[in-house]
Amino acid sequence: MKKLCIEGGKNLNGNVTISGSKNAALPILFMTILTEEKINISNVPNLKDIDIALQLLIYLGAKITYNKTLSIDTSFINVFSAPYHLITKIRASIWILAPLLARFRQAKIFLPGGCQIGSRPIDLHLNGLIKLGATINLKDNCINAFVKGRMKGKYILMEKISVGATITIMSAATLAEGLTIIDNAAREPEIIDIAKFLNTLGANIIGAGSNKILIKGVLKLTGGNHKVIPDRIETGTFLVAAAASKGFITCNKTEPKHLNSVLIKLTEAGANIKTGKDWIKLDMRNKRPRALNICTSPYPGFPTDMQAQFALLNTIATGIGIITETIFENRFIYTSELINMGAKIKIKNNSIICNGIPTLFSSNVFCPDLRASATLVLAGCIAIGITVVNQTYHLFRGYESFPNKLNQLGANIKII
Ligand SMILES: CC(=O)N[C@H]1[C@@H](OP(=O)(O)OP(=O)(O)OC[C@H]2O[C@@H](n3ccc(=O)[nH]c3=O)[C@H](O)[C@@H]2O)O[C@H](CO)[C@@H](O)[C@@H]1O
Ligand SMILES: C=C(OP(=O)(O)O)C(=O)O
Q1: pLDDT per residue over 165-187, tens digit each?
Q2: Coil, helix or strand at residue 292
Q3: Domain limit, last residue, from 209, 227, 245
Q4: Mean pLDDT, residues 221-238
Q5: Which of 27, 81, 280, 380 is found 20 to 30 A from 237 (Cα to Cα)?
Q6: Are residues 187 and 299 in the same domain?
Q7: Of 347, 292, 345, 352, whose CA–CA distance to 317 is shortest?
Q8: Positive or negative CA dihedral for 129, 190, 49, 41?
Q9: Hey, how many other C-beta atoms are within 10 angstroms of the C-beta on 286?
Q10: CA-nearest residue, atom 18 of ligand 1
Q11: Same domain, yes or no, for 210 and 238?
């Protein structure tokens, strides 16, 4: 596995172009199964997770070509089960289940993979499908699902807000008979993008972005074109890169509206922020951040996927900051690596208390998950000395050209 060797002590300054959203592109790719007609998708990020999703589609029989835009033709799909070695590599593979079930009335998949940041059950996905009429058997980590005829629209009250389960139910309900109402739905921008994509194909979805989504099932979807939204978590990560390194950055091709809660916290930390239609500028030159208190929550709250990056900001801030994680129960594994770099962090229940110090020192660190990987790379960029970042598999799952983009901002990262 690749390692990164980082010479630290750098200010990160300049312009960065934000890639398409991983967490919007992945479900959209699997939803191409819902139609027999050709679909063109642009702004798909070049990531390991996307490669795996495409391999899964190809395994099922899809024909895929790429020329700046991904063209996907799923009319040839004739396999309804997916292989263990692919499905278990990514969390997003769960989203193959509902489209197969909706179009072919059957699917067989293993439990999905993804970041090990908690137990991450899939009960809400499966219960949603069962409510819509599917029969599901779960045995030996394998899900066997089938349905007689079309699924039937229902009122579904989500007992917990889940991005993934909201997407599964939207997907199934699109081709179901009658009206489905998802109450207490996730409100993330990725959900809005998915609804926009499905509506382009002829679906009838309203309310995405609110906590109640109404889906009137249609018999068939057509083909169409879609451009994936910018990656708000990649944007937030680069803003933290500049804020933690006393830098000045412009993130281009992004969507400032999707980052409200993150921008509020960066401003509270002392950053000077300006936004335009598709750009965000952050200036933190000659300033140490002020420590922040943060509590993660579903959108529009502060994203759990930005928790680790902001913990890094607190490590070198003035004062004491408390970050509380409410979404995943095991998302602080990376803190031991930051402590090895000198950070003063204590874990108490689902919070980390950080006493800011002026600088971190280099170390040999190991990446436990995706956002932690990016955080440890940024820590290496600002620490004194040479940091070696090991286990970078997760980093390349979710960030396009991360070392290159950082090097263009003045970092010195070598892939070894
Ligand atoms: C590929 C992708 O888009 N991943 C994102 C997605 O993950 P993912 O879709 O897995 O996250 P969810 O929103 O579903 O999870 C939220 C909470 O609900 C729980 N839960 C979820 C499903 C279920 O059936 N039962 C259940 O109990 C989870 O364990 C977690 O505690 O949203 C998370 C929350 O914003 C992000 O951190 C991930 O980056
Ligand atoms: C947790 C994440 O990804 P996944 O759900 O794919 O594991 C993430 O994107 O931060």
Answers
A1: 999 999 999 999 999 999 999 99
A2: coil
A3: 227
A4: 98
A5: 27
A6: no
A7: 292
A8: positive
A9: 7
A10: 162
A11: no
- CATH number of the CATH domain containing 351: 3.65.10.10
Pocket of ligand 2 (CB under 6 A): 23, 90-92, 114-115, 117, 305, 370-371, 398
Residue in the block written with tokens 């992945």: 26
Are 60 and 148 members of one domain? yes
Tell me which residue of 87, 98, 89 sits closest to 30, measured CA to CA: 98
The per-residue pLDDT for 1 is 79
* Residue finishing a domain among 175, 195, 227: 227
197-223 mean pLDDT:
98
Whole-number Å distance, alpha carbon 326 to ligand 1 midpoint, is 12
In the structure, which protein residues have their CB atom closer than 6 angstroms to any atom of ligand 1?
A: 23, 26, 91-92, 118, 120-125, 160, 162-165, 186, 304-305, 327-328
Same domain, 213 and 300: no
Please identify, by atom number, the ligand 1 atom nearest to the C-alpha of residue 123: 24
What's the structural domain count of the chain?
Answer: 2
Mean pLDDT for 208-236 is: 98
Give the ipTM of the model, two decimals please: 0.99
Q: Which residues are catalytic?
A: 115
Q: Are residues 342 and 382 in the same domain?
A: yes
**What is the sign, positive or negative, of the torsion defined by CA atoms of 378, 249, 295, 399?**
negative
91 appears as a binding residue in the annotation: yes
With cut-offs at 50, 70 and 90, classify the pLDDT of residue 232: very high
Q: In degrees, to the nearest 5, what angle opens at C-alpha 123 toward C-alphas 122 and 128?
A: 105
pLDDT bin (cut points 50, 70, 90) of residue 370 is very high
Q: 262 and 161 in one domain?
A: no
Ligand 2 center to 370 CA (angstroms): 7
- Is 122 labeled as ligand-binding? yes
Q: In terms of residue numbers, what domain contains 180?
A: 22-227
Q: Do 274 and 305 sit in the same domain of this protein?
A: yes
Q: Look at residue 68 in the predicted model and tell me its pLDDT.
A: 87
Query: Which of 21, 49, 91 has most ligand 2 atoms within 8 Å of CB, for mutation?
Result: 91
- Tokens 């950070």 found at: 343
